[in-house]
Amino acid sequence: MTLPKSGPDEAVQSAERVSTLELFFDLVFVFTVTQLTAALARDLTLTGITRVVIMLAILWWMYSGHVWLNNAAPPTTPARRCLLMIGMAGFLVVSLAIPHAFVDGDSATAFGWGYLVVALVHTAMFATSGAGRAALARIAPVNLASAVLVVVGAYLEDTTQIATWAAAAVVQIAAPHLLDAMRFPLRAGHFVERHGLVVVIALGESVIAIGAGAQGLELDLKLIATAVLTLMLCFALWWAYFGDDEESRTAEAMDAMPLRARSLRALTVYGYGHYALLLGILLFAAGVKSAVAHPADRLDAAQACSLAGGLALFLAANVVTRFTFRIHPNSYRVGAVLSLAATIPLGMFASALAEVAAIVAVLTVAGVLETQRYRDPREAAAEADPGGNLRV
Question: Where does the sequence pass through the membrane (predicted)?
Answer without folding.
Answer: 48-70, 82-102, 108-128, 135-156, 162-184, 196-217, 223-243, 264-286, 306-325, 337-369
